[in-house]
Amino acid sequence: MCADFIDFEVFQRGLTSYLKDHTYGNANQNDLWSALQTQVDLENVKLPTTIKEIMDTWTYKMDFSFIRVTRDYQTDGANVKQVEIFTAKKQRFYRPYHLSMVGALNL
């Protein structure tokens, strides 16, 4: 998932750096987030917040969200919205998604 929103090549370079830095040693997820963040910063990848904050919403939080796609008949397009479901405290989720469409929807 992380590779999808920071670019696969950037992810690979960050992961390679992480693995080299922690070869034969101990590491935790924050070490991985830090290595990926360093690579993101080096390559000027624009994100809404830090890698750690985005990924912590996947690894620590119990809430969830889903993506709602509704057809727009006037434009023959679609509206995409992230809908958040809160089961505990209200917390923001970062859920990257990709949408590709070619031609009319033909739903």
From TrEMBL:
It comes from the Eukaryota. Transmembrane segments: none annotated. Pfam families: Peptidase_M1. Residues 3-58 form the Peptidase M1 membrane alanine aminopeptidase domain. InterPro entries: Peptidase_M1_aminopeptidases, Peptidase_M1_dom, Peptidase_M4/M1_CTD_sf. Coiled coil: none annotated. PANTHER family: PROTEASE M1 ZINC METALLOPROTEASE, THYROTROPIN-RELEASING HORMONE-DEGRADING ECTOENZYME. This is Peptidase M1 membrane alanine aminopeptidase domain-containing protein. The lineage of its organism: Eukaryota, Metazoa, Ecdysozoa, Arthropoda, Crustacea.
